[in-house]
Amino acid sequence: MSKPKSLFEKVWERHIVEEEGADKPAVLYIDLHLVHEVTSPQAFSELDARGLKVRRPDRTFATLDHSIPTLAPDADGNRPYVTAQAKKQVETLEANAAKNGLRLFGYDAENRGVVHVIGPEMGLTQPGFTVVCGDSHTSTHGAFGCIAFGIGTSEVGHVLATQCLAQRKPKTMRINITGALQPGVTGKDVALTVINTLGFSGGTGFALEYAGPVIEALDMEGRMTVCNLSIEAGARCGMIAPDQKTVEWLRGREYVPQGAAFDEAAAQWLTLKSDDGAVFDKEITIDGSAIEPMATWGTSPDQGAPIVKGVPVAANEDEERALKYMGFTGGEAREVEKVDVVFIGSCTNGRMADLRAAAAIMKGRKVAPGVRALIVPGSEWVRVEAEKEGLHQIFLEAGAEWRLPGCSMCIAMNGDFVLPGQLAVSTSNRNFEGRQGPGSRTVLASPATAAASAIAGHVADPRQFMQLESA
Amino acid sequence: MSNQEPVNSFSSRIVVLPEANIDTDQIIPARFLTTTTKAGLGKVAFNDWRYNADGSNKPHILNEIDPTEHRVLVAGNNLGCGSSREHAPWALMDYGFKAVISTEIADIFKSNSLKNGLLPVVVSPEIHDKLTQNPQQRVTIDLESCTLTLEDGTTVTFQVEAFARQCLLEGVDAMGWLLKRLPEIEAYEQTNNKAA
């Protein structure tokens, strides 16, 4: 009888070109390489310097997302880039893609969008794949049972040149989330609870597997949000075993096998799960029934708490420093936090399910006076679908801005940013000092909470608005 | 840079940034990532800690020291967390650092640092305390023996992944190492039905 294996081990073993040894890492094969404008130019330069071309253009896909404007071009077609350098960076990727025969989802593509939104959306991401990108939130694709992780620019060059990476096998950790989520609690709240439980570096050195009834009950968008935030606990990747929900979500998408071939592939995908008795280096359990809508109060994503519990009192110097930066004293209720900006979007929460959740709260209501609400769809596909459903009208009537897809205010390098001292409630992934602009203060939360905070004008538990609707 | 200069032994004064969880957004804010080269990022290393919005200096230790004298950054726990931007080690190296020391160093930042010849050194809390309590001290780092020697003579060993260490010591080029495996990679693709 063969030794029981974890999901991670099964996928890892299928991608070993050369085994790891004491003095050398494994050579790991990469099925899908996603590329964007920010972390790739120096890697393409490295290939040029060596006289190399991209080895597998058929496994390499590029998009524009980080430094592109989310405002429409002017009448002459000029795009409002934040700087000439941002424009040059986009043009550099366009030139590198053309030179190497890569498919680039550029401005004219109906599929352009945030790299971790479009990969799954087009079915480029498939269960059992290894997926890399020069972006730490590549862990998102783990929601489909992929080993998916972020790499630096040197490694982007390695994959472009060889379709492989030199890698050591990480340790494994399973996170079991038991029970059932209360109404109004979302994947984002699960993720913020997991990070809060593990700590900001609690996942360092580990590949995570999320399991249990709460994960099984989440929709694919919720699972992507959970896996997306794995890096915020320091983990290299996070993954979830594919199930029938995964299969149905992928069926018919552009790059997955079609017809009978799809069903064959799906049967194979469904075997990708941890065997009974699989051993993990670490295993933890979280009571999913106890999870409540979360909001961060500090300057790292693990510094979060249920909204109803208010801001905690600092327990150490680091927390004191974080509270000071945020302008909180500790011990106060979240309602006293006046919000200046609400940002709904990003690779964490820029999908249709996220926009629907935000729209359900905003419908028929108005953004509070003095609050700037920015809604940025994760992709062109999301933008078009949302407009078909009329979600953009709900946002616009509420007083929010409706933008073109991109990373936008999550990373604040395209001209969309939060002003110094302003407080933003954001559905993105990082509340670091200055992440959304120099001096900006960020509270991370779910789309429902962000929408509720936009309406209330302060950090707000979204359930009060949900109850109003059912009354 | 295709081939790294070999790294071995060096001595230098340290500079201490005591904060825990220094993320790569602090090391180099995202608005500086629109560059298409690696050069010159040292001037924006820790930009928002070092400069006011008008570009004038804030009182910060990194504006006060001579970077050629302080080649070792000692930082609080979980250094380099967050974004995978390799611009972070590029900026630190361009500033002048050759090594970073912490009680924990984030995975991707560590990997990126090793690929550029910035040596990540993880030490125990006790050794970290000895470093921060004497923040002017000179230390010696020897990659051959994987040892860190403090000014008081305390010597400890640290771990460096064996292949990364070999690359640094011998100037081995990691991309070249992978390129030598193209026959095995092609064989894998054939066997696994992954050929183009």
What is the element layout, followed by pairings?
The complex is a heterodimer of chains A (471) and B (196).
Chain A: H1 7-13, E1 16-18, E2 26-29, E3 32-35, H2 41-49, E4 60-63, H3 84-100, E5 103-105, H4 115-121, E6 130-133, E7 147-150, H5 153-162, E8 164-167, E9 171-178, H6 187-198, E10 206-211, H7 213-217, H8 220-228, E11 237-239, H9 244-250, H10 260-269, E12 282-287, E13 294-296, E14 304-306, H11 317-326, E15 341-344, H12 346-349, H13 352-362, E16 372-375, H14 380-389, H15 391-398, E17 401-402, E18 423-426, E19 441-444, H16 447-456, H17 463-470
Parallel strand pairs in A: 3-4, 3-6, 4-5, 6-7, 9-10, 9-12, 10-11, 15-16, 15-18, 16-17, 18-19
Antiparallel strand pairs in A: 1-2, 2-8, 13-14
Helix pairs in contact in A: 2-5, 6-8, 13-15, 13-16
Chain B: E1 9-17, H1 24-27, H2 47-50, H3 61-64, E2 70-75, H4 87-95, E3 99-102, H5 107-116, E4 119-122, H6 125-133, E5 138-142, E6 147-149, E7 155-157, H7 162-170, H8 174-179, H9 182-191
Parallel strand pairs in B: 1-2, 2-3, 3-4
Antiparallel strand pairs in B: 1-5, 5-6, 6-7
